[in-house]
Write a structure and sequence with these properties.
Blueprint lengths: L2 E3 L14 H4 L6 E3 H5 L9 E3 L18 E4 L2 E5 L2 H42 L7 H25 L5 H4 L4 H21 L6 H5 L2 H13 L6 H19 L8 H4 L1 H31 L7 H18 L1 H4 L10 H13 L13 H23 L2 H18 L15 H18 L12
Antiparallel strand pairs: 1-2, 3-5, 4-5
Helix pairs in contact: 3-15, 3-16, 4-6, 4-12, 4-15, 6-11, 6-12, 8-9, 8-11, 9-17, 15-16, 16-17
Length: 437
């Protein structure tokens, strides 16, 4: 194993000017290169191999703050105080990055809780018009995403090659997003508010199944165990009753299954987007398609599909096709909260608009946190928003009515579900370190 020792080797006198705070750090130590590769070195002095050159004629050109030690005809060099200064800057930037990650995670959890609560509250004034609310949200996403895409294109982040890629898969993305939005809005209007954060976690189960089938992905034991715990938690929650009136069982199994199906559509949408990203690397010669290209065109096709699907999906809410125009007119009046047909629409348009804005903020914060850290950190942030949102529904929130006390079975199911998510998000074991030098 190669070893580096710090010592002075000079071919001519050298009188460096060294900051006083660095003189207190004695570079008189030794360590193995394997320690550096395994990140066990805590001191900011860096030992780096220099191309494994033969060192027999190279000593004279090394500066006095470097060292050279023969090991099987090879040499290593210890970089001096300039590297130490750089390492100090790296440590400061690392601390700043960690602080930014913590702040980003807190913001994501805050948006996650607000998004779940406002999702239920927005459906209170528009309970009879969930399909109309889906349209409002969809067209809002289209406007925002294409605005961001416009600025990213002029900034050079989005290229003409990205925009020229085939749009057939993006059309499928819009189709799945429309199904997820319509079914989720319909079921969310009928289900108890505290059940929505629980049932929504079936998204993890669907994602595991679909990615295994279509992406040929293999998951670790902790991820599969977490998936099983999520299933147990959902079943426990659905099987529990509510002592405060409406429960999941009393609402009906149809609306529960419809909400579960909406997350199946979302999982399929996510897997399809991942396939698009993977294939774009080959199509764009090593560069992946920009996220906002997928979101912008996917949202546009989603809006188009929702418009075209009115005749086919309106019966889901008991609206005959010949009454569709009056349904949209009444939905708009309820959203604006004016006119004689706007009875029972208290809270509009404030609550629906707040939901759309909060949902966009949640999606953007999740994307920002993912870029700052990793998918594990963003998953944990979204996970901890689940119990917080469940607790939020037990508070005296406006428009929802008197808060209900959650039964023990409901709390048990939520606990098992969150435990499953935590197990799923555990980082893989580091395992044994490599024995190669």
């Amino acid at each position: 194993m190669s070893t580096c020792y710090s010592r002075s080797v000079a071919s001519k006198p050298f009188d460096p000017v060294i900051p006083q705070r660095l003189l207190n750090l004695r570079p008189s130590f030794s360590f193995h290169l394997s320690d550096l590769h395994s990140h066990r070195i805590s001191l900011p002095l860096v030992c780096s191999p220099l191309s494994w050159l033969n060192c027999s004629e190279k000593k004279g050109i090394l500066n006095p703050w470097s060292t050279c030690r023969f090991t099987n005809g090879r040499f290593d060099r210890v970089l001096g105080f300039s590297a130490l200064e750089g390492r100090i800057g790296d440590l400061q930037r690392e601390r700043s990055r960690k602080l930014e990650v913590v702040i980003g995670a807190c913001v994501t959890m805050m948006f996650g809780v607000a998004n779940r609560v406002l999702y239920k509250m927005a459906l209170i004034p528009l309970k009879q018009y969930p399909f109309f609310l889906a349209q409002i949200a969809t067209f809002g996403y289209v406007a925002i995403y294409f605005t961001i895409l416009h600025f990213r294109y002029h900034a050079g982040i989005v290229t003409d090659e990205m925009l020229a890629l085939p749009k057939s898969r993006l059309f499928a993305v819009g189709f799945l997003e429309a199904l997820a939005a319509a079914s989720g809005m319909a079921a969310g209007a009928m289900l108890p508010g505290a059940s929505i954060p629980i049932i929504s976690q079936t998204f993890l189960v669907w994602q595991l199944i679909l990615s295994t089938i279509f992406l040929r992905r293999r998951y670790k034991v902790n991820q599969l165990l977490g998936c099983i715990l999520v299933i147990v938690g959902v079943i426990t929650t659905v099987a529990s009753g509510s002592s405060a009136g409406q429960s999941i069982k009393e609402t009906g199994i149809f609306w529960t299954l419809l909400m579960v199906a909406s997350y199946l559509f979302q999982a399929a949408d996510t897997v399809l987007k991942e396939i698009i990203f993977l294939d774009s690397v080959h199509q764009l010669k090593g560069r992946s398609i920009d996220l906002f290209v997928v979101n912008s065109y996917g949202s546009a096709f989603q809006a188009l599909f929702l418009c075209l699907s009115f005749p086919f999906l309106s019966n889901l809410w008991g609206v005959p096709f010949h009454q569709l125009m009056s349904y949209l007119r009444d939905g708009a009046a309820c959203f604006i909260n004016i006119g004689s047909s706007a009875t029972g629409c208290e809270g509009a348009p404030l609550l629906p608009v707040l939901f759309v804005i909060t949902n966009m903020g949640f999606n953007i914060s999740m994307l920002h946190l993912l870029k700052l850290s990793s998918a594990v950190v963003s998953c944990l942030a979204a996970t901890f928003a689940v119990p917080l949102s469940i607790y939020a529904f037990t508070l005296p929130l406006p428009y929802i009515g008197a808060p209900s006390t959650l039964p023990p079975g409901f709390i048990l199911g939520a606990t098992v579900l969150v435990a499953g998510l935590l197990v799923y998000c555990l980082p893989p074991s580091l395992g044994a370190t490599s024995k190669q030098s």
